[in-house]
Amino acid sequence: MSDRTLRWCVRAVVALPFVVALVMLAGRHWAPVLDLAMTEFRVRDVGGAHTPLIGLPGRIGTFPNQGSHPGPLSFYLLAPVYRLFGSRAYGMLVGAAVVNVGAAWTALWIAGRRGGRRLFLGVAAFLAVALAWFGASVLTQPWNPYLPLVAFVVVLLATWAVLEGDHVMLIPLVLAGTLCAQTHVPYLALSVVLILVAIGSVALRWWRARSVERAEARSLAASVGVATALWLPVFVDQWRHDPGNITMLRTHFLDPPEPPQGLRVGITTVLRHFDLFHVAIRTLARSSDAPTVLVDLEGGSWVLGLLVLLSWTAAVVVAWRLAERRLLRLHAVVGVAILIAVMSLARVFGKVWYYLSLWAWIIALLAFAATLWTAVVAWERSGRRPVPVTRLAALVLVVATGAFVVDAGRVRPPEDRLSRTLAAVVGPTAQALRDGVGDADGVKGIYAVVWEDAYYFGSQGYGLINELERRGFDARAFETYRVPVTAHRVADPSEVTADVVLVTGVNVERWRQRDDVVEVAFAELRTDAELAEFGRLHDDAVARLQAAGLDDVAALVDTNLFSARLDPRLPPGVEPMLIRMLVLGEETAVFIAPAGVV
Questions:
Q1: Is the separation of the CB atoms in 180 and 148 below 8 Å?
Q2: pLDDT in tens, 509-527
Q3: CA 388, CA 395: separation in Å to the nearest integer?
Q4: Span 552-557, average pLDDT
Q5: DSSP states of 342-394 as a string?
Q6: Which contiguous run of DSSP H or E holds residue 158?
Q7: What is the DSSP track for 15-68?
Q8: Mean of the pLDDT values across residues 573-585?
């Protein structure tokens, strides 16, 4: 088989699980909620008068005056595929898959430029393992912590390629690094530092040669031009608003609202991600639920992670003694990434959510791959029989891709239970608005969507605005939610025709007692067995909380289940109960009410 044929076959193998996942997802209706509904708002706005200039809202500043992740590049990349699929939510899933396949193919392109079949198939095996780890639920989701994962592989490999003297790789490095840094702020320091390391290596070569190579200068100029174009919207936002998002990010991280977690947490969090034994075991036993998968993967042992890190350190020493410059440069990229990862996680304040450190698994896997490469070089330098790297890499590629295909065959849409509940109420709600039920006035009206959510802090409320807008209604939120829904979706109370009120849990019955509203939709997706399970979990959790003297948290179980789950004082064993209750869901109803009733 020729090299060209081999490379196209490998590209097809890498893309295959994504195709399987998209086929499975195509047959299921998906109504995005919370962050993904906010993402669709912005993707829908691309190219119009309200084209986004910054990223998705984050835990930056104080609600409702919160800041956002740095930039809008992810929305721009998703928009063409989204429109190609009729501006349906499914188009965002396809867009996420396209972004990830494109990043994977770019990583393979870098490998092809830097070496022969061995390196190309080695990187292909590395990618296949990484993709299988994260799974189809993660890699088809356009959620901002997930979307840069494969692009971060490109950042690491492109940095190494530039250190190797391949100055053309500055351009994909800047592209991938910008996508990572703009989409989710935990990638910002990693991407910026690695780009600076790459540029610094070019400058160092110029200084040593006492001359500037024209080809390198053109590559550097092109990368600077790309960076300028991609970051221009961010600076336009900074110029147009007071304070701009850059100011809000700088203020938030230089003067955080809580003390940072500190160096110990930063080190142990990274080490837990280096427990590759745990990752391998949990991947084999995974479910199809993305958050559950990733939380399980996060639960590694820092002690075992330390052993993996020490093995990598030993490999660095061996590479140094062998004077293998290619390996030493790869180890240098890994070392810089580990250092910045520890420093970044040490600066985290509040709960260290699993999605804040997803990139740490990629760094750990690259460290492991660099260790294996060093071992192969040392073995062959000793005069022993050559290692059949191409065959082993091909075997890993096939096995990992097979596991990924199996996972893709059982993929579900993001937040499937919340989505199905929303889908069950949005149709009747839209029909009632068209029919002028209550204070509604058909598609001519302006509707303020509000919510009293007993369990998921309004996740489906954002989704309801999104779904009504998709159906041609002018659905908005009030000023409090201007950042999540975007400023042009804020309702002027004096212009609102009627309120559309989404109500869940214990709030439903209370709203049914009102005589000034009309119930237009109701959904209860729990089976009898699930209702019984929910009741048992509820009673057990409340009893344990009350026994621990946490009556305030026990009250939240009925009125704000998600907040109850986040309380740091929870007794052992209670949090899994509350998480399961969140998965099971609660009854949901929609009411049409006179404007301003809430």
A1: yes
A2: 999 999 999 999 999 999 9
A3: 11
A4: 93
A5: HHHHHT--S---GGGSTHHHHHHHHHHHHHHHHHHHHHHHTTPPPP-HHHHHH
A6: helix 149-163
A7: HHHHHHHHHHHHTS-----HHHHHHHHHHHHTTSTT---S--EEEEEETTEEEE
A8: 90
